Predict the 3D structure of the following.
Amino acid sequence: MCGIFGCLLEDGHAAKVILEGLKKLEYRGYDSVGIATLDARGIHVKKDKGKIAEVEARLSLSSLPGNLGIGHTRWATHGAPSQVNAHPHTDCTGAIAVVHNGVIENFMQLRSELEGRGHKFKSATDTEVIAHLVEEGIARGLPFLKAVIEAVKVIDGSYAIAVISVKEPDTIICARKESPLVIGIGDRTLYCASDIPAILPYTRKVAVIEDGEVVVLSKAGFKILKLDGTPVSRAPFIVQWSAEEAERGGYPHFMLKEIFEQPLAIKNTLRVPKVYLKLSSTILSDSKRLFLVAAGTSYHAGLAASYMLSSLAHISSTPVIASEFISLCNNTIDEETVVLAISQSGETADTLSAVRCAKEQGAKILSITNVVGSSITRLSDIYICTQAGPEVGVAATKTFTTQLTTLALLAIHVSMDRGLLTTSEAQELLDNLHKVPGFVDRTLKETEPLVKKVSDLYCNKNSFYFLGRGISVATALEGALKLKEISYIHAEGYPAGESKHGPIALIEDGFPCVFVAPPDETRANIVGNIMEMMARGAHIIALASEDDKEIEELSTHFLPMPREVYKYFTPIVYITPLQLLAYYSAVTLGYDPDKPRNLAKSVTVL
Ligand code: AGP
């Protein structure tokens, strides 16, 4: 996730306006920043690694000349945060500049084709291919607009782009596919941006650009077209939100916004280049000992992954809470050990100390993180980045489901590489995984009203149990962690089979027990565990397949889940109503879910 901003002023200083716009977008990424403006002398670019304020103090981005320009605040996906990888990117001649938010899946192939035709690349980003593709179109004699359209037609993946060219110095061309893009219409001024809050200080008149559309911003006004050139008529609307509400996309809290961003975050995460999966799969297959090391929510992702890896890839792994790793595993690490570290921030001190300890003893380090350039990526032999975008709420939500998505992809690839799945079996699983964004979307919409009711009824209880079996133990543990960290209600996650060995002693009339009960091989036993709890007066809140009439009848409250989710992907879908339960309980109790007491987004102490 990155932020893009562009403006075309009647006269005046575009760079100043762009800088202010980028500040509003900094929540979308902040590892590097850059601006390109255009005047009679050509394109001027300033960019560097660092936060906006730091780079502005160093380079004075806002002093760039010209009344038209584009800018970018970056959340690295391809290429580490650095001066050359910062946007805008230019073509070979410096006559075209591009900013981009999204992921170009086929950039390696496009880059090698462009290099074969003599183009010189300066960065390691996927974005730079766009500048060179537009350059080729213009060199072939195409008008600027046609050159941009031809370029985006060969791109696979997601993008919101803004492009400027000396060929048409009064024009900004934008295009969108699966990354957000809005335009703002001022008084003889035009703006483009990744979201509305960036534009609000200048105008409340906005048009939202849809997938597969191109926009031309020029002195003549704005024009929206489809890729085949058909004009699109779109009446702008007047934004009624306050600036503060607009930053949260109209949601009352970042946590809720991030919960509802999950379908898109998962979709973007599924775009991980195959080469990373291949390299990681080889490391995992060759390991003699595999530890899955993480803290908090990330540990729950690791726990779910241990079930995926053992069932799908026949690989035994040990999930270890990061702060316990050295005490538990120190004497068992050698060169044949692999540590798969999972951390959304990539900065958790417990996880870093486990990784350093393992690395010193020769272990290979593989990591999954949401932050390129974080400490964990620098310590890793190979890392995969989830594409959740920055998560502002302290509670991990979209970073958890994107970690699970990456781990599921990895388990499928290891299984294929070990010859345990035929190509068609693997394809079937991949097809199901690609449907998960849709399952999550449906689940959120269908369960939200039911969850609100449950949270109203039970948020004054002192205690909750969350129970599951098999891979659903991870979902149960995560559901309990979410509830306790956000709403301060005591909650325990347990393997359901273990509940009769002690926890059941606490059950009394009306005690809320959440059962995570997907239709897998654990279902029959979990029905038995539900009965045991019911017999002692517990209220059963069950998450089970929408067609599971038996569990529905046993439940006090039934949360129907999509029937088609493959059993090892259920944590990605089933956790989402539990995130909502934590959220609505906190809000009903009057707590701020974005900033729970005593917690920090990134825990950098041991
Ligand atoms: C989750 O909601 C928590 N905020 C916390 O448990 C978190 O998952 C843990 O601190 C690990 O963070 P990391 O993924 O950044 O390493």
Summary: The two ends are 30 Å apart (CA to CA).
